[in-house]
Amino acid sequence: MATTEGLTIRPFEAGDRAAVIALWRACGLVVPHNDPETDIDRAAGRANSDVLVGVTADGRVAASVMVGHDGHRGWLYYVAVAADARGRGHGRAIVAAAEAWLRAREVPKAQLLIRDTNAAVRDFYTGLGWDESPRIVMERRL
Ligand SMILES: CC(C)(COP(=O)(O)OP(=O)(O)OC[C@H]1O[C@@H](n2cnc3c(N)ncnc32)[C@H](O)[C@@H]1OP(=O)(O)O)[C@@H](O)C(=O)NCCC(=O)NCCS
Question: Is residue 18 part of a domain?
Fold first, then answer.
């Protein structure tokens, strides 16, 4: 658990579910082909993945990140800060918490995907020291 700028970052607990999903929806991170309930069930509290939440002093879930790894690469998903809590370093803190989670598991590299409809957020990550990855990402629905 870490506290930065009044935000306490800790692993997801069962009682966070509704607030986390509401945060993701409010941040525009839920798309029709991803069920947030299933995403939480698959990731939270697992050996290779977790959902971290940032809780304000008044007990509100104001930030989140889902983090996981396959031993080689770590991935961040659902990076979110509530609109009325932005600009206070919570985004930086929740990304740092995910990086720390991966470092603690000796994962050498972190990656994340930005939807092309959200390309402007790239500057947030470059400001945190992330580099744009010169890769073509392929996918298939299974
Ligand atoms: C992106 C997001 C997480 C940033 O959260 P935040 O709490 O406002 O970020 P911080 O206050 O920690 O900002 C850290 C730095 O990034 C900068 N920054 C924040 N948002 C930015 C943006 N959209 N573009 C460029 N820079 C940005 C801040 O100015 C700050 O810079 P500074 O340290 O030099 O002052 C938040 O805007 C959000 O939840 N957006 C909607 C969901 C989303 O798009 N998630 C990413 C999916 S890939």
Answer: yes
Q: What CATH number should be reported for the domain holding residue 85?
A: 3.40.630.30
What confidence tens digit (pLDDT) does each residue in 110-136 have?
Answer: 999 999 999 999 999 999 999 999 999
Residue-number span of the structural domain to which 54 is assigned: 2-127
Tell me which residues have their CB closer than 6 angstroms to ligand 1: 27, 29, 79-81, 86-92, 112, 114, 118, 120-121, 123-124, 127
123 CA closest ligand 1 atom index:
25
Q: How far apart are CA 12 and CA 66, in angstroms?
A: 9
Would 137 be classed as within a structural domain?
no
**How far apart (Å, rounded) are the C-alpha atoms in residues 129 and 70?**
23
What's the token pair of residue 141? 């629905």
Q: Mutate which of 52, 121, 125, 130 to test ligand 1's pocket (most atoms within 8 Å of Cβ)?
A: 121
- pTM listed for this prediction: 0.96
